[in-house]
Amino acid sequence: MHADFASRIPAWPRFDEGDEAAIVDVLRSRRWWRGNGDVGDRFETAFAEFIGVRHVRAVSHGTAALELALAALGIGAGDKVIVPATTFIATASAVLRLGAWPIPVDVEPDTLNIDVTLIEAAIGPRTRAIVPVHMAGQAAEMPQIMAIARRHGLSVVEDAAHAHGARAFGQALGAIGDAAIVSFQSGKLMTCGEGGALVTNRADIAAASFALHSCGRPKGDTDYRHVMPATNMRLTEFQAALLLGQLRRLPDEMARRDLMAPFFEARLAEAGLRPLATRPFVERHGRYMVLAWFDPADFDNRDAGALSTELRAMGIPAFRCFPPIHQTEMFAPGALRKLAGITGTPPDYAALPTPVADAAAGSVIWFSHTLLLGDEALLADVAAALASLRTGAPASVASARSAVPA
Predict the structure, then answer these.
(1) Which of 70, 148, 201, 398 makes a 20 to 30 Å CA pair with 371?
(2) How far apart are the C-alpha atoms of 32 and 214, rounded to whole Å?
(3) What percent of the chain has pLDDT over 70?
């Protein structure tokens, strides 16, 4: 059963003859960059319509999109930006690259989204923005986050890197905050290998983002005007051509994941895990990953790293949950010392209480969305392989719950 998992899981990324033709068209056009091509423009228009926003700025990767969104909002040296403690490091590193300090806030145990009840206590005089992450494609509590932000005069940038096509509160995720970002990295629900996009309804953010992503040059410039210090984050025409095909396939792939996710989550529960809950306000889950708590004691005291490593050895795309961002090496006092001259004294990251994020790092694993493109037999066998690693007795949901913080 174990040896053939890799061959049974649908290949990712997906492509078809239409993608091949689109790449060849760009190749033969000799218009490979945004300056003289139109494929990037066509993708931005199509993606804006899909999300339901006025402006899209396609860029080189999701981390660049985060940095671009924050820079367009004026975030800079010494500012503070509230982020969830459980997230990929880009959510924090984009803040640091602008000379600002990320302020991690603990997450909810049932969703691993930022705990809105803890946000206001983290706001201080230098706080400028909140970056909620829609973990695994499930909406954060956006109405409450927006209300807190408006009360304190803060901007909101949605990190929707996992949430292509997800919806809640009557809107697509990415269309609710002042701005949002998505990622098109290789494993994401839409991919061109590396890529990302800033999306917004605000004309001022869109206008600022153009020069910031294009060497400081205003749109349409041919005279080497450089109106601000900036870098080059432009997407290539080849990447945009791939993304048009990815966008075309996304609705069918989402439908397949929606169909298979409940079955897989039920099998994981039978194997002794506790899949994350889906909140009632979620109209459509992105399903970038399937996350589940487990009790290491039920698996011969394997933590999330050890358990996921064994599953990957079987060919199953399983991974440990992100460690709390402020407990990674880049947040060690010595590593941050070089920033202190620009941004002032760093926060005392070691003192930040994040018990849920701490527990999740050792007791939550996640499975790739590619499994949900498979069939029930595949998903049942994945759960059976997981159950085979248990200690002794048959699985029980109750035992998994014992690992979840109250």
Answers:
(1) 398
(2) 15
(3) 94
